[in-house]
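Subject: Protein entry, chain in single-letter code together with its fold tokens

Category: Structural biology, sequence-to-fold work with a learned token vocabulary.

Notation: Tokens come from a learned vocabulary of local backbone shapes, not from coordinates.

Start of record: The labelled sequence and token lines come straight after this line.
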Amino acid sequence: MGAQIPMNTERVLMPTHIDPQFLKIQQWMSPSFPIGSFAYSHGLEWAIETKHISNANNLMDWLTDLLETGSARTDAILVSLAYRTTDIYELNQIAISLCPSSERVSETTLQGDAFCKVLNDVWGEDLSDLALPIAIGQAAKLHQIDQLLMVSSYLHAFCSNLISAAVRLVPLGQTSGQKVLSALTPLISTISKEVLSYQKHDLWSNCFLSDVASMRHETQTPRIFKT
């Protein structure tokens, strides 16, 4: 008889509990969650058309700026504040007033309305007329979801959606897109932790070209995305 492969007699420890809250976040942040996120490029379509983004490195730089000093950072702060605030509608007005263009307003309000509708229909909540990061932060509070997990999941979904747009528009290969997302993960983690203690006076943005992109996209023809 030939040599036999020895059996591994060590006990394999299997998980005994799956956190339903984690699964709920996966559902909310999934591309299939019906808020129409796939229809928005956050100005990326104009940036690609004008060659500001033409490869994976350009995309990486653009998203890094959004996370460190732009709208992604602002949204993360808003998600966290919506989790902690007692005046959700005042914060919502601040969120809308920070939008630099009409397309950014429609992007956050239409997705926020859709998010609220699904929450109301599926989980029996009573949310309405909220910008997307405010709706998500408030929903996380109502469902007692860990704040850090919610903020980091939001930022991951934000970047993933823009990478998906770039994969189609640049175009980039699927693998290149996943490399960008993987490379952004440590920064997403860092920003998520930082914003948990931020207040309203910490809301600011220095990504002016991204703001200009959202303005220029309003008159861009032809175009695929709503923003």
Observations:
- The two ends are 69 Å apart (CA to CA).
